[in-house]
Structure formats: structure tokens, C-alpha cells
Amino acid sequence: MISIQSLSKSFGGVKAVNGCSFDIEQGTITGLIGPNGAGKTTLFNMIAGAFAPTSGKIIYQGQDVTGLRADQLFHKGIVRTFQIPHEFERMTALENLMMVPPGQNGENLFRTWFSWAGVRNQEREVRKKGEEVLEFLQLTHIRDELAGNLSGGQKKLLELGRTMMTEAKVVLLDEPGAGVNRTLLAKLAEMIKQLRDERGYTFALIEHDMDLIAHLCDPVVCMAQGAVLCQGDFESVRSNEEVLEAYLGSSAHQETEGKA
Ligand SMILES: Nc1ncnc2c1ncn2[C@@H]1O[C@H](COP(=O)(O)OP(=O)(O)OP(=O)(O)O)[C@@H](O)[C@H]1O
Questions:
Q1: What sections of 57-173 are H helices per DSSP?
Q2: Which pTM value belongs to this model?
Q3: So what CATH class is 1-77+168-260?
Q4: Which atom in ligand 1 lies closest to the alpha carbon of residue 208?
Q5: Is ipTM over 0.90?
């Protein structure tokens, strides 16, 4: 689905990503792990079009998409979840979903004047789709709740729901488990699997919670110092000595920095 080829990104003298290569196969839930500062977020930002690589290529469904902007990639089906924006917290869960589809007629004043019926129809369809998404996520009971009042886990589910309002093919999740209680985490994991199985989504996710990685991801790609250290199923990555060293090295480094 996505082939990352010798990708690098430097910020001044810092090589955040340094010759990173791996494939995200269609229909997988690929987990990206690695110690702090390994380059995971920077890599995600490049795949999602937040910034262009310094060198290397990103091939998506056989097409070179290196350097395309986030909105261009969004229209091709590469969707990244983001925290619900501050101003959206004052909207209900359903309204948050209804805000997602791009280019709604209702946003265009001229079309609004000339085609009220069209706008009404489209709004009705978007509302219906939003309600279906809430039902799928078993969130119908919080339909009219303000997003700002939702728990961390409910917000994560709603963020996942926002991707379902689009024509997503690849969904990039940045630490979906962060701040989510165990019960909702299990539900979130089930929803991700269900979206893969029933809607054919491909997922790539950055995660520090190893339980979630073990439960959800195959393959797991471990990054260190901007490159891929190893990849494979969770067990093989977990028992890899270089991986252990990378994690231990990084925590020892942090401890030393903390003491300094
Ligand atoms: N905008 C930036 N400007 C300068 N340096 C940056 C920038 N973004 C990231 N870096 C540096 O690039 C390296 C990789 O950072 P990145 O955030 O991609 O790692 P990460 O694996 O996501 O870490 P974490 O797990 O802590 O989020 C780090 O040394 C970081 O300080």
C-alpha cells in the first residue's frame, strides 16, 4: 500500500529520520515503536504530508506521492487522526462528525442561494452518515454531548469516527492509547480491527503501550535513531537484542540527562 524508501528528514543539523525504509502492506495494522526521539512522529508527518522529506521517496499504491501536501494526500485516502480542535469542543459529538466531509455545499453561499434543496439533501445525508458512525462506535448515547465533556477514550473513538466520514484507505493513528482507560482501550482496539476487516482500512500507528501493540499490530516496526532497527511480529521484535539495547540506551541517556 505504502512503500517508504530511504526516507530522511533533517532539521538543521539534526537527522530526525535517516534512511528509513519499510512497507505498509494493505490490510495490515502496522505498529511503529521505538525509544523517544527515534523519529516516529517525523516519519508520520512526512507520510501524512505535514512536511516534505529531505530525501527519499514515498510510494502510495504504485504512485510517487513524495512531497504532496496533507490535503492532497487526504483526497487520495491517506488520513491522519488529530486531536479534536479546541473550538470543536463546544460542538456535539454528532456535529463534530458532520464537520468532516470536505466541500459541503452548505459552506458555499452561492450554491446555498441557488440550490437550497441540494444543500438540505446533502446535510441530511451527512447527518445520517454521522449517526451511522456513532452507532458503529456504540456512541449513540453521547450524540448530543459536547465534545469537550467526553472522556479521553470517548474522544479517541470520536477521532476514529471522523476518519470514517471520509473515503479513507490508510489511517495513521498517533498514540491512540494515550490517556484512554483499559475498558475503552479494548473497545478502541476492537473498532480498529473491525474497520480493517469490514471496511478494508489499512492502519499504521505509533504507540508506546506495548499491550496494545501486542494485541493489535502485525507487523511491528521498531525505529531507532531515524532508521528501522528491526521488523516482524511482536514476539520477534520484543526478543530482539538490538531493540532491548535501543530502549535501555535511550532510558539510560534520559536518566543521565535528568541527573545533569
Ligand atoms: N521541528 C523540529 N525541529 C528540530 N528538531 C526536531 C523537530 N522535530 C523533531 N525533531 C528532532 O528529531 C528527532 C526525532 O523526533 P521525533 O519526534 O520524530 O521522535 P519520536 O520517535 O516521535 O519521539 P517520541 O516517541 O518522544 O514522540 C528528535 O531528536 C527531535 O528532537
A1: 70-76, 93-98, 109-114, 116-136, 152-164
A2: 0.84
A3: alpha beta
A4: 25
A5: yes
